[in-house]
Write a structure and sequence with these properties.
Elements lengths: L1 H25 L4 H12 L12 H21 L3 H7 L1 H25 L3 H12 L3 H11 L5 H32 L6 H36 L2 H21 L4 H13 L4 H25 L3 H6 L1 H25 L4 H10 L5 H12 L7 H21 L1 H10 L3 H22 L2 H25 L1 H12 L4 H33 L5 H30 L8 H15 L1 H19 L25 E6 L11 H4 L1 H5 L2 E7 L2 E4 L12 E6 L1 H11 L14 E6 L11 H4 L1 H5 L2 E7 L2 E4 L12 E6 L1 H12 L2
Antiparallel strand pairs: 1-4, 2-3, 2-4, 5-8, 6-7, 6-8
Length: 759
Amino acid sequence: MHEAAFIQDLAIILAAAAGLGWLCQRIGLSAVVGYLVAGMVVGPYTPPFSLVTDDASIATAAQVGLVFLMFSIGLRLSFRRLQRLGLGLVLAVFIGAGLVYYATRGLGLVAGLDGTQTLFLAAMLMVSSSAIIGKVLHETGAGHERHGQLAMGVSVLEDVVAVVMLTVLNSVVALDADGAAAGGGGLAATLGGFGAFVVFAGVLGLLIVPWLLRTLSVKADEELQTLATAALLFGLAIVAHRAGYSLALGAFLIGCIVAETPHRHSVERIFEGMRDVFSAVFFVAIGLQIDIRALGEAWWMVLALAGFTLVVRVGAVSTGLTLIGTPHRDALRTGLVATPIGEFSFIIAQLGVAAKVVPAVYYPLAVGLSLVTSLTAPLLTRRAEPIADAILRRRPRWLVGLLDSYQGWLERLGERRAGNVLWKLSRRRVIQIGVELLFVAGLLVSAEQLQIRITGWLGGPGWWFWTALVAVALVPLFAVWRNVAALALIVAEFTTQGMEAEARNRLRGLIALGVRSVATVAMVTWVASFAPTGAARWALPASALVAVAAFVWLRRRMVYWHSELEVGLQEVLGEAGAARLSATSVPWAGRTHEEWNLGVSDCVVPDLAECSGRTLAQLGLRSRFGCTVVGVERQGCMISLPGPGEALFPRDKVLLLGAPAQMASAKAALGAVAATEASEFDAVGLETIVVPAGSRAAGASLAELAPSAAHGVQLAGVGRGPVRILNPGPEERLRTGDELLALGTPVKLRAFRAWVREA
């Protein structure tokens, strides 16, 4: 039976992943390396160990694993985090991606690759693995250093680059399938449609998902919350797939949306186990599709391309960071850390090989590159400082002077930009206009597919659907018009400063009218470019008529709807959640302190830790190891500078400050596991115990018996004939024949009953 065969394959995949993942961790490698090797070992290309051979099972496991992996990546990325990273780092990442692309184009010309093959190879090398980089930084203790923070920021933003590249490559594959050339217009339309879909799904998600999670957290238990979140995850993945994009995009988007809500940490906790399982399944499934003989035959290509990747990625990332003003030393150290490639490179290679637009060797090449760069990543991270210092010492003087002059120019430019009042006043409205136009475009792009499905479900003519669609689109379009009108007034005011009053008044009105006119033409052109072109092309003139009528009769109502929409989005995006312990939220971790031999590192208290329930004063980490606890993250809430009375509990993330040796000793103490008995929470119950004649309990007060402290049970009541004494006080004295209503576990109750019966 196929069902039983799939379960068998899944069991083999998980067992192999656990075994080889543990082995790689023991020898200091990333578990991801173990997962890839596990897939190659038990896959169909390694007889006699070929335990998983069914192509359908492998493909299904890979797709399910991909959905969970992309969801977890999205959970690490949010709009607030992008704001903290800053526009400069975004620019640096895209500069680095462009440098990698052009360097790879040169390699492709030398190697004789065509344009499509070069594009896929460049896309594989553009993006690093945030999963591998995160593990390496955690294991090396560099996660809270300046270069470690920058490396994590680069890897997170490169995930965005990867999502965009997947969309572009899907378009290239589709164009190649149609026998067409990938022209600039086609690429522009693809990116425009992609942006429209992302904003459309993102805005709807930000309005619906937080409300849904908040409602479920109040009115439903954790089981239903898990089911609802999983439904959202797979639902949006299918929506993205039906819209012409990948399952990965939908899963990534729902992760980003959930990351904007206060429920992010509870969702992470709920899905932690499934995420770990299916992420491992994804990497093993990648290995299952690798012919180890092809990898062996291409070993020289893997090593040569790995050397090229290490050099180009270090140079591109450090150059991008230097161009935004990052100190040269930090930029080089960041480039050395951000070298390993991983999950997105596999997906990109798989897409090209499946579409037969690149040679089959690309797939084992991607896996081999990931293995080599993952093996070298810990070494480069630990040796980043001396390597960077060696490179800086060998720079020619003219280059040092040029870079110093450039950094000075950037500082002066920043000072002038900080004083640009016009940009400060208009920036927010420009962003709102862009988001609202993309939302309308996304609504129009998906209109015909929505109309077919909705009218197919509900029946009836299509006019009511288009009327409702126009009504929905009018709110953001009216919002765009209001923002444009405000921008026109701002521009007119600033461009006419210093003029005489009469001339200024005339010119100010003309400028404002001109800005509004140009914006109106641009808005109509934008809407027309995304309007339906098939059987529903009549919707555009109908929309114009409805818009005129709505503007005349519903103007005040649309102002209200626009305000409600903006307030709702701002509440989600600007919600002041609890402080989080992350590489971008620790204010003192932004600078290096090598001269002090001090560092910041974190560790997680295990489930059965000896330190569980003990306060920091009782643990004495500072007196024993010279290490200070400067932060504790518990269930998403940050406790900054905890006092000596703060207790630690399982799954707490503890932030330590100290020398490397001190932090290692403190981590070992916090990670020690005690041999504790299993929890009997579900077995706690009430039981009636009668005080017999001659019992040692007869005549004694509850304060003297101390049942809670001495026996581990709580007396909830005392029955004395017809009298029932609920929650008796410590002065209550027991008598022969009293019925004691005791609360506790079966073991504690049994021991207390035996004690009461003794004379």
